[in-house]
Enkurin, TRPC channel interacting protein [Pelodiscus sinensis] (Lepeophtheirus salmonis), 221 residues
Amino acid sequence: NHYLHKAPENVYNFVKPHSPEPSQQANRPKISRLIRAKSAKTTRELVRNKKEPVPQVTDKVLQLFRTKRNFVQKNVLDVMKSEPVESESVKFIDKASGDTQLLKSSGLIPVYKEKKEFGQVPDYIIKKAREKEEKARRIDEELKASLRNRDNQLSETDRLLILEGLKTNWSQAHQTYQHLPLLIDTVAKKQRKQKIETQLHELERYINVLENHSVIYISDY
């Protein structure tokens, strides 16, 4: 059996290769419509971004201030008044092969001793010394204030009595020290001699404190 197909009314109305489906082709906007929409959008942007018109001949235009200063003459005067710059490119030849070296950094001319701060105490050391003195003075004032508030000052009578007793003890210890044997050949003799010497040094230190200081406070610590 042979099946016969009816030919379409328009033989050229068929889907061509690489073409969209008929449904998509129907929904696609026409090119002329897109061109009109794009041109309308461009026109609106041009109207929105329109620049100001060119001023007319009759319009009053604000002119910039023109100075009468002669900049050429000013530059000439500045150059004449300026001091010459010292060149650091002075070199000398120190070898027969012609090797050159900068004269300023070679050590052949005095540089550091010509400075103003040469041989002077640096500022940071002076600052540290002042801070140390200020701290010592503040501690001394606080100590004096704390002792002044206490009623524990040693009276002059007690000071003299203690001083007299210390001198008596020193005389006795000194007399004992002089009676030591000349030959110190045992451990006991060495220990006794060392003990008497330590006692004499302590008594001398206390005597010097009482003799050199007339005002003495007794601490509770």
Observations:
- The beta strands are 91-93, 100-102.
- The chain has six helices and two strands.
- Residues 1-5 have pLDDT under 50 and may be disordered.
